[in-house]
Amino acid sequence: GNLPTYRRSSAVAVANPPARGEPNRYYRPGRAPPAAAQGKEAIPPGSTTVNIINGTTGTRQEVVIPAPGGSPAPPLGPKVDPKFLEMTPLGPLPKIAADGVRPADAFAQPVTPIPGKPDAVRVALIIEGLGVSAKDTAEAIAKLPGAVTLAFVPYGSDAGLAGRARAAGHEILLEVPMEPFDYPDNDPGPQTLLTSLAPQQNVDRLHWLMARFQGYVGLISMMGARFTASEQAVAPVLREAEKRGRIFVDNGSNPRSVAGRVA
Fold first, then answer.
1. Mean pLDDT on 196-203
2. Rounded CA gap, 17 and 225, in Å?
3. Regarding predicted confidence, which is higher, 28 or 101?
């Protein structure tokens, strides 16, 4: 059906939220026009397109979002062992292997102990919003050290970017769009998890999101202030993440979040 207009700020580190002014705007997705009218390669039937305009440079980028039943493009980089995948009509979903190994552990990068300081404080750096701009994402993968975790939105047109990030030594996260307080004026995008939906409906949406690419150690919320403040809404999502061997990162942007307590 028709999707509302939605907007999102440009990618930033979790510790440095964007300033007011919405530097990037996401406009209403619509059915993809015929390939002949675009002068481009044919777009899969049922796909939608999102026009993204950079408010600083005016650059326009068109991103194709696959239809819910479509399979995402195969990733480049290290292949995900089939024992961690459950094949579904939506695409491959993560699962705990038959031998009990969790994907969160299998896809984690090794941590080098600090000699003589077993209890030393560690800082996790997470860069969010990757995967939409192929150029910026490739630059982040190439220039940032492997210890920096990269969080990918589920709407990128090149699923191989997540695989390249893993090949470069980064742990990766899947950004899950969740309802903010001012929804739908501020809308993270298609398949957003909503407090107004039944738990199974949100789990179904989560499955669509989780099938976009593979190899991530866990989930992190995209927006989601209203959603993560609701125990009834967030609990089924945390249960599904646990069931499929993934961690959930509460990025601390919502002081009302109940995710830590519920988890």
1. 97
2. 14
3. 101
Taking only Cα atoms into account, the Rg of the chain, rounded to an integer number of angstroms, comes to: 18
Give the phi and the psi of residue 151 in degrees, each rounded to 5: -105, 125
Q: Where is pLDDT greater, at 28 or 109? A: 109
The model's pTM is: 0.71
The residues that bridge with 26 in the sheet, in sequence order, are 52
Q: Which of 65, 74, 73, 72 is nearest to 90 (CA)?
A: 72
pLDDT at 62 over 50: yes
Residue in 222, 236, 207 with CA at minimum distance from that of residue 85: 207
Does residue 21 carry a pLDDT above 90?
no
CA atoms within 13 A on the CB side of 28: 9
Q: What is the mean pLDDT of residues 135-156?
A: 95
Q: For residues 25 and 130, which has the higher predicted lDDT (pLDDT)?
A: 130
Structure-token pair, residue 226:
């209203």
Q: What CA dihedral angle connects 225, 103, 13 and 4, to 10 degrees?
A: -40
Give mean pLDDT, residues 158-178: 94
Angle at 199 between CA 198 and CA 200, to 5 degrees: 95
Name the nearest CA neighbour of 164 among 211, 131, 125. 131
191 in Cβ contact with 205 (< 8 Å): yes
